[in-house]
């Protein structure tokens, strides 16, 4: 006597698991569009030889946005004080350069370590409340650091900043030039290396658990996921990334000011991530490109009221592209694919 299985139910559970694992591995592979995207910095190097400083700013802002995307886009931890880690990284390089330690790679490592340590210590406060309390905690940490930097003027320079930060040649061979050529290549290389690591991270089981925490925090402990440990880890990594971005800004500009710790920088970062699309990795990068270029063009066209037009663009994005540039594009592609499949099923003979 044979038993029948219900329609649509696999006879072997292992086959369903294998199919899901196969789909997951395919999604983790690099896509052709990704290779094309990373050709753009190379193209920009030759196409815009007089704008290396602007291109460096785009690369640094992209890394800064990537750091928040790991925290907000994947773990769902919103922050209004992410500039605290950015500023710590910048001041770390500034203090090193002022004391004769101008090696760029040493500055990046120490900036990442100190910012990550601050993120680790402050992450325990984030676990004690809801999204609103987390906003207040992150904002409070950034404001305290801002006032500390403003108070100890003998160390940080206060409102006058720290000019003339000495930065040595990269690997002892490549000096930073006044046109920003070396600084741009340096920033793009650091961005790519850290992006590659972040991509490996989000496509790992750790990254998938972060997605689960963002979608349903209460259910994940029942699946054996240590939620608090995951949040502490990703917050620490995101803080380290932000510290590296701040260090790059200080090294390429040879200057550090209180602006690196300002609330405006944190707010702009959140807008960049919303503009590009949170939770996609490339969303923060696209948002940084659009935001920095729009900022540059609008301020040049209308120096007095350029923020009005930038605000209008952001309002339109929220109204008509709530998933950001990348999220909306993916939704459009998916809906087009579904319509094509539905049309093919309708036209196919029964």
TrEMBL record:
Predominant cellular place of this UniProt entry's protein: membrane
Source organism superkingdom: Bacteria
Record flagged with keyword Lipid metabolism: no
Family matches, as InterPro entries: ABC_transp_permease, LivM-like
GO molecular function: branched-chain amino acid transmembrane transporter activity
Pfam families named in the record: BPD_transp_2
Localization: Cell membrane
Membrane disposition: Multi-pass membrane protein
Keyword Nucleotidyltransferase carried by entry: no
Keywords: Cell membrane, Membrane, Transmembrane, Transmembrane helix
Protein name: Branched-chain amino acid transport system permease protein LivM
Top-level taxonomy: Bacteria, Pseudomonadati, Pseudomonadota, Betaproteobacteria, Burkholderiales
């Amino acid at each position: 006597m044979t038993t029948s299985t219900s329609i649509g139910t696999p006879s072997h559970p292992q086959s369903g698991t294998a199919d899901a694992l196969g789909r997951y591995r395919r999604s983790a592979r690099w896509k052709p569009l990704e290779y094309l995207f990373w050709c753009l910095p190379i193209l920009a190097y030759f196409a815009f030889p007089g704008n290396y400083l602007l291109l460096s700013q785009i690369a640094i802002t992209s890394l800064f946005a990537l750091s928040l995307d790991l925290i907000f886009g994947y773990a769902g931890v919103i922050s209004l004080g992410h500039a605290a880690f950015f500023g710590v990284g910048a001041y770390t390089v500034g203090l090193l350069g002022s004391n004769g330690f101008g090696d760029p790679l040493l500055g990046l490592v120490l900036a990442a370590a100190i910012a990550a340590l601050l993120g680790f210590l402050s992450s325990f406060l984030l676990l004690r409340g809801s999204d609103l309390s987390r906003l207040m905690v992150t904002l409070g940490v950034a404001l305290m650091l801002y006032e500390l930097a403003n108070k100890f003027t003998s160390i940080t320079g206060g409102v006058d900043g720290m000019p003339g930060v000495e930065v040595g040649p990269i690997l002892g061979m490549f000096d930073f030039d006044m046109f920003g050529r070396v600084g741009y290549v340096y920033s793009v290389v650091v961005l790519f290396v850290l992006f590659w690591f972040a991509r490996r991270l989000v496509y790992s089981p750790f990254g998938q658990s972060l997605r689960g925490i963002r979608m349903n925090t209460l259910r994940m402990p029942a699946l054996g996921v240590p939620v608090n440990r995951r949040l502490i880890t990703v917050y620490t990594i995101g803080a380290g990334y932000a510290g590296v971005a701040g260090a790059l800004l200080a090294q390429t500009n040879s200057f550090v000011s209180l602006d690196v710790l300002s609330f405006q920088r944190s707010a702009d970062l959140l807008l960049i991530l919303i503009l590009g699309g949170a939770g996609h990795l490339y969303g923060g990068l696209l948002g940084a490109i659009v935001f920095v270029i729009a900022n540059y063009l609008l301020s040049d066209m209308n120096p007095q009221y350029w923020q009005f037009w930038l605000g209008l663009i952001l309002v339109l994005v929220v109204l008509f592209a709530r998933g950001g540039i990348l999220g909306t594009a993916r939704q459009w592609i998916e809906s087009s694919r579904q319509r094509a499949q539905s049309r093919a099923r309708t036209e196919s003979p029964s």
